[in-house]
Specification:
Elements lengths: L11 E5 L4 H11 L6 E5 L5 E5 L7 E5 L6 H17 L4 E6 L18 H12 L3 E5 L14 E4 L2 H12 L4 E5 L5 H10 L4 E9 L7 E7 L6 E9 L3 H12 L4 E9 L5 H6 L5 E5 L13 E4 L2 H12 L13
Helix pairs in contact: 1-8
Length: about 325
């Protein structure tokens, strides 16, 4: 027989950038592995240096990096980590970006604009990834920017389980903050037992980012507990206006559920004084102590990411993690 047959076992390694070490530790505990030791520092001019502390030759590497501010620093670090793994003869590299950077820039709204999400996808592929794992992409079509497999995980099961346990006995309705998130709101309504659905009609000026005007509420919200769902909260302008619109239409309570807590200033102050009962999010992004507030509840996304890593490593089904919904 020609060729060489080996009996070696596959080896899983988990590497993590410096942006969110708490999440990396939670994922490693879920998997029962140690985070790959790595030296990382910045040169005086801002250049990033990384070197792994042990051999990764022939391993199945998963490299995790969150992308809070400053997003460009952590994106660059992620790419450099991937390049280091490639040059260290790793067998397969899976990048994990819980909050995909530049996902909002997924298409051209006007002439002479970039499609930055596609550029970021190209950067990851050029760096050398074989697969990408992300959570609640701002636009699912970002998956199509890759020529490699993309596992699009959903935080919905984690968030909805918490909402159902705490607010399930109340008269609740799911609300989308705009027409573009209606499909996600429909999945929420289905998950919570086929409850009612509403959305806030708003307008946005493409020349003024992070600003929108909530105009009116479509659907019945009077006397109900409204679960306002979105994929991210950045400056919280859209969410706060939606909260105000719901209260003005007779909502008794508004609960916000989101995946990615970007919380750029002045988001914390806006949410704290908005009259919202609770803001539920995951820890795809770290929330520093100075941006925490009384109504904020952060749930761990680590169990979902760990299950996805295990499924990929075992060549199993990742789709089963979110009931086949994408």
């Amino acid at each position: 027989m020609s060729g060489i047959v080996t009996t070696g076992e596959k080896r899983l390694v988990l590497a993590s950038g410096r942006a969110h070490p708490v999440l990396a530790q939670e994922v490693s505990e879920e998997l029962g592995v140690e985070v790959l030791p790595m030296d990382a520092w910045d040169f005086a001019n801002g250049e990033i240096y990384v070197r792994y502390g042990e051999s990764v030759r022939g391993s199945d590497a998963f490299v995790l990096q969150s992308h809070p501010a400053p997003i460009n620093t952590w994106l660059m670090e992620h790419l450099i980590m991937i390049d280091a793994l490639k040059r260290a003869s790793t067998k397969r590299i899976t990048a994990i970006a819980p909050s995909f950077p530049y996902a909002r820039q997924d298409k051209k709204h006007r002439g002479r604009e970039p499609i930055s999400a596609r550029l970021v996808a190209d950067l990851y592929q050029t760096a050398g990834i074989d697969r990408m794992i992300s959570v609640d992409l701002h636009a699912p079509q970002v998956q199509g920017y890759f020529d490699r497999p993309v596992d699009h995980l959903m935080a919905l099961p984690i968030l909805s389980k918490y909402v159902e346990g705490k607010y399930g006995q109340e008269d609740i309705v799911v609300v989308s903050p705009d027409a573009g998130r209606i499909r996600v709101a429909e999945q929420w309504a289905k998950r919570l037992g086929g409850i009612g659905l509403a959305f806030v009609h708003k307008s946005r000026d493409p020349k003024r980012p992070n600003q929108a005007v909530a105009k009116r509420v479509i659907g019945e919200v009077s006397g109900k507990t409204c679960i306002l769902v979105d994929d991210m909260i950045d400056t919280a302008g859209t969410i706060v206006q939606a909260v105000e619109a719901l209260h003005s239409h007779g909502a008794t309570k508004v609960v916000v559920a989101t995946t990615h807590p970007i919380l750029s200033d002045p988001a914390t102050e806006r949410l704290r004084t908005s009259g919202v009962a609770e803001v539920i999010c995951t820890n795809t992004l770290p929330v520093p102590p100075e941006k925490e507030f009384e109504q904020l509840t952060q749930l761990s996304i680590a169990p979902l990411i760990a299950r996805a890593i295990r499924a990929v490593f075992d060549d199993g089904s990742v789709t089963s993690l979110f009931d086949g919904e994408v």
